[in-house]
Amino acid sequence: METGRSAALDVLLQMERGGGYSTIALEKRLRASRLGAQDRSFCTALCKSVTERRLTADHVLRRYLSRPLERLDAEVRCILRMGVCQLLYFRSVPARAAVDESVRLCAYARKTSAKGLVNGVLRSFLRDGCALPPCKGDELDRLSVLYSAPRPLIALLREALGPERAGVLLQRALEPAPLCVRVNTLRTSADALGEALSACGVQVKRSAEDPDALFLQDTGSLEKLGAFRDGLFHVQDLVCQLCARAVDAQPGMRVLDVCAAPGGKGFSMAERMEGRGKVVCCDIHPHKVELVRQGAERLGLSSIIPMVQDATVYNEKLTGFDRVLCDVPCSGLGILRRKPEIKYKDLVSFAALPPMQYKILEISAQYCKENGILVYATCTLLPAENEEVAGRFLKEHPEFEPAPHPLLGGVWQRTFLPGEMGDGFFLARLRRRGVPGKGAAV
Fold this sequence. Notes:
15% strand
């Protein structure tokens, strides 16, 4: 029989074998399931816990296994990690149930011969009070177990941010990410939306930083909420809403979002523009552009123009924009609490990002008209992808100047740690000067 645990095992096995993002694999698995709301919620929590706490769980397992963890079948390895995470982090799950259900999963995974192993390891850990075994390595090893992050990543963050800020980032990566939404001010108000959602049993909290942002709890499936289907809001982290505000798009302007999918910042800008003007939302992938189109249709945003466009290739038709948002692909270290699998990426891949980011910024700058605003943004915290890219651009492009903004504390660039204003994020505002805009229409 299908359970929340069996569905979680399917997702984790897919991640173990093929990589990718757990959120996407989880969404696909739940869409195909017949699980009730409680089991779906448990499945989601268990997948997230095992993904973000994998290294801590493996540290525990190595203490109780007589063979290398890597030599176990993937199914058994995942089942053991699930059991350890339940014993450590799921206070609502009785310890006996965590062990017994893990043993039952062996049959579901067709690994009945592993029942004794799973039972023995988890019961031994339980008898020891579920205490983390001491770490016999150096400081990086200790931090790796504490934060469930690879040594090279911890070393990189400590070098880039300093030990204290790196510790804050890694700790907050283990904390739940809030659900923040942006009110569609073309159709409703924050007060009216809050009342409508509260009437459906949703817990609503107003944001102190943005009058059109709400924090939600106990939503269930968002797609089943009438307010969602009616296009009264879209999901968007608070710092991303701040990014859209920092672009400072005004009614009647022409705005370009060069890396727009799934469209949240473009939607926010269109709403702040009161539906007047144009917001061209580009992405290289047609299926992602279709997501932007569908989102704009649900929200009733006729000013959104979805467009397939490679941000690394100049398009002579895209000129004369009042505002250009360049939210580039990045290492994503500011959103670890939403995508914990990013922690396990090969750091070598990060080296290729700054040159690509700079290329996109240079090309995007050509679309910005005289006195127009260009915003460079990432969801990472590494200076190599943030301040160094923005600083190099200013040095090599004297036609642009810093454009401070009150939302950034009166400066032109700022890094937000996770928890300051939502997820981790970087913003840089630039103004073009002395270069006439061509004014071409899209």
